């Protein structure tokens, strides 16, 4: 777990720098190890994606993937695996780095209890800048409608590179930045208090870390799920008529018959994915930090 709000980093000392370096290392290692369940649950993620794009019930989305066959089932898995590892490295490392800097410079201007969330917000913005292209490529690859004219990863990369950034690699950047910044802020702001509550019920530290990560990420995923649906619909196509964020949201809301239930189609599978991946990542990260401390 990142430093508690009450801990004080060593001002300017070598230990201060080492804390930040270890955060990058631990974040990357825990995320790399969690790529195994990411690989296992990728079909679940792809099922959710198809529901987000085509507004299908789960059985129709599964039937669509079954008809395409096992070869195409894992089409688009490379970007999330790579992104998962790099994401953990950057997210945990940056959050702890920003947290330490804020702790040194805030001078009681900012409440110490708010510092983890504020640092998470900053880390989430940087995360969006770095990983929006990965998500764009992933969503294009996972859309079965692109299989014919964009059959390979290389063809997708060439096509996106030919377009200006706002239409190519950085399509839907604003909703991604909002989702990642808010999500990271909530994750780092809530997982410490949730951990304390869970540990108070008599669970072991490792189990408490897993449960806190799973519960926190589950709540965040559900709260921000509409933004993920919006991003998927904005990024799945390449070319054609280009609309802004507001226009795309209006089209999405209309296509879901102005129903929150239909907008959240696939949300239950997001809970499953979040519980597995972020629960394991949080447990592994906290364990590494405690061992090195």
Ordered list of secondary-structure elements with their pairings:
Layout: H1 14-33, H2 35-40, H3 42-54, H4 58-68, H5 70-73, H6 78-105, H7 115-142, H8 153-161, H9 173-199, H10 205-235, H11 245-255, H12 260-263, H13 267-292
Summarize the structure.
The chain is mostly helical and 293 residues long. Helices cover 74% and strands 0% of the residues.
Structural commentary:
Belongs to the mitochondrial carrier (TC 2.A.29) family. Its main location: mitochondrion. Solcar repeats lie at residues 22-101, 111-197, 204-291. The protein is mostly helical. The protein has a single domain (14-292), classed as Mitochondrial carrier domain (Mitochondrial carrier fold). The chain contains 13 helices and no strands. It has helices at 14-33, 35-40, 42-54, 58-68, 70-73, 78-105, 115-142, 153-161, 173-199, 205-235, 245-255, 260-263, 267-292. α1 packs antiparallel against α6 (78-105), α1 packs across α13 (267-292) and α9 (173-199) packs antiparallel against α10 (205-235). The longest helix has 31 residues, at 205-235. Mean pLDDT is 84; it is low at 1-19.
Query: What Rg is obtained from the alpha carbons, in whole angstroms?
Result: 20 Å
Distance between the termini: 11 Å
Overall mean confidence score, pLDDT: 84
Identify the quaternary structure here: single chain
What name does CATH use for the topology?
Mitochondrial carrier fold
CATH homologous group name:
Mitochondrial carrier domain
Give the C-level CATH assignment.
Mainly Alpha
The amount of beta strand, in percent, is: under 5%
**Largest sheet composition:** none
Number of helical regions: 13
The CATH architecture would be Alpha/alpha barrel
Total strands? 0
Low-pLDDT ranges: 1-19
The helix content, as a percent range, equals over 70%
GO molecular function: NAD transmembrane transporter activity
Main location: mitochondrion
Protein name: Putative solute carrier family 25 member 53
Pfam families: Mito_carr
């Amino acid at each position: 777990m990142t430093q508690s709000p009450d801990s004080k980093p060593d001002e300017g000392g070598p230990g201060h720098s080492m804390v930040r370096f270890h955060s990058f290392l631990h974040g990357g290692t825990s995320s790399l190890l969690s790529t195994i369940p990411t690989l296992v649950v990728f079909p679940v993620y792809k099922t959710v994606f198809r529901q987000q794009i085509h507004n299908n019930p789960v059985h129709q989305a599964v039937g669509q993937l079954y008809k395409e066959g096992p070869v195409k089932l894992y089409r688009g898995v490379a970007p999330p695996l790579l992104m998962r590892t790099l994401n953990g490295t950057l997210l945990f490392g940056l959050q702890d780095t920003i947290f330490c800097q804020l702790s040194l410079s805030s001078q009681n201007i900012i409440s110490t209890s708010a510092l983890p969330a504020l640092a998470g917000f900053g880390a989430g913005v940087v995360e969006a800048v770095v990983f929006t292209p990965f998500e764009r490529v992933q969503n294009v690859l996972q859309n079965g409608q692109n299989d014919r004219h964009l059959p390979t990863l290389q063809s997708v990369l060439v096509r996106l590179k030919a377009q200006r950034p706002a239409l190519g690699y950085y399509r839907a950047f604003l909703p991604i930045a909002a989702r990642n910044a808010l999500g990271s802020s909530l994750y780092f702001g809530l997982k410490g208090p949730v951990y304390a509550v869970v540990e108070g019920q008599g669970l072991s530290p490792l189990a408490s870390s897993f449960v806190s990560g799973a519960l926190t990420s589950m709540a965040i995923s559900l709260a921000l799920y509409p933004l993920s649906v919006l991003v998927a619909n904005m990024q799945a196509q390449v070319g054609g008529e280009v609309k802004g964020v507001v226009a795309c949201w209006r089209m999405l809301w209309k296509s879901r018959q102005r129903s929150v239930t239909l907008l959240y189609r696939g949300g239950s599978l997001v809970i499953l994915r979040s519980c597995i991946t972020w629960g394991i990542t949080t447990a592994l990260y906290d364990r590494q930090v405690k061992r090195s401390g």
